[in-house]
Specification:
- The chain contains nine helices and twelve strands.
- The protein is α/β, with parallel strands linked by helices.
- The protein has a single domain, classed as P-loop containing nucleotide triphosphate hydrolases (Rossmann fold).
- Strand 7, helix 5 and strand 8 form a beta-alpha-beta unit.
- The longest helix has 17 residues.
Length: 283
């Protein structure tokens, strides 16, 4: 019997007496690719911090790979990419290779020493993300997009079973962003890596992810895109036009028989939509 990668049960989190998250209940199975969307202030980043053990839930339970989060120790199975880069000074005293290698050191006992296998893993991920030529440069001298790619490499260096990503493509140029999303898709389909990604980019997340979690302090919707497209509850809450945006239609018929541009769900951006995806339902 397979064990869920994530299992959230009746999760509530309060800050200063105010509910930030209310009664969340959902699970992520092996191989799921979940797009986590919602308006600003909906609790997305708070949920990510709870999943990483950086915050403690006041009520409910979080299980990682079948174990309560308080008992979970194998954190190398989880790769995490934060929303913003941490290198804000040009004098930050570490090279690209050293930053990526920190991901390998995290799971080692003292004394933390990199071996041959670790160095090979670092080199592989540098080449996979096309930053091998930057490996000896101080990370503080890189552009924001290059720094983001370094953090992505650090998240991937342990070949994790679960990737948690908070707006990972925000600092990437279009070409690098497309390669990055293709890399995630390959990891998801070929290695069955489970992915939870916070994003506002509807066009991209709809092309690659298998499930949608719409959060607004509570779970408004969680399921596959097919379920979203045929959900009467979603239609009632957001309207048919906004529902069709997620389903990758250009527009919905009006009473006069024409097409009307779709408004977006709260907090959403349209994002790019490939010619092979726009105007048709997600298959």
């Amino acid at each position: 019997m397979s064990v869920d990668v994530l299992d959230i049960r009746d999760l509530t989190f309060r800050y200063n007496g105010v509910d930030v998250l209310q009664d969340l209940r959902f699970s992520v199975e092996t191989g799921d690719y979940v797009g986590l969307v919602g308006p600003n202030g909906s609790g997305k980043t708070t949920l990510i911090r709870l999943l990483l053990g950086l915050l403690e839930a006041g009520q409910g339970e979080i299980r990682l790979f079948g174990r309560p989060i308080g008992e979970f120790r194998d954190w190398t199975r989880i790769g995490y990419l934060p929303q913003k880069t941490a290198f804000v000074t040009p004098r930050f005293p570490a090279t690209v290779r050293e930053i990526v290698a920190l991901g390998r050191l995290a799971g080692k006992r003292f004394p933390k020493i990199l071996g041959r296998t670790d160095r090979e893993a670092v080199q592989r991920v540098l080449e996979r993300l096309d930053i091998a030529d930057l490996q000896d440069r101080p990370v503080g001298e890189l552009s924001g997009g290059q720094q983001q790619r370094v953090l992505i490499a650090r998240a991937l260096v342990n070949d994790p079973d679960l990737l948690i990503l908070d707006e990972p493509a925000s600092a990437l140029d279009p070409e690098v962003r497309d390669r990055f999303f293709q890399l995630l898709a390959d990891l998801n389909t070929e290695r069955r890596v489970s992915i939870v990604m916070v994003t506002h980019d509807l066009g991209t997340i709809g092309r690659y992810s298998s499930k949608l979690l719409y959060l607004d302090k509570r779970i408004v919707f969680y399921g596959t895109y097919e379920e979203f497209c045929h959900s009467e509850d979603v239609t009632r809450i957001f309207g048919a036009f906004a529902q069709h945006v997620i389903c990758h239609r250009h527009g919905a018929p009006t009473d006069g028989g024409g097409l009307t541009p779709n408004p977006l769900l709260p907090g959403m951006a349209a994002g790019p939509c490939g010619e092979d995806r726009c105007g048709e339902e997600r298959k």
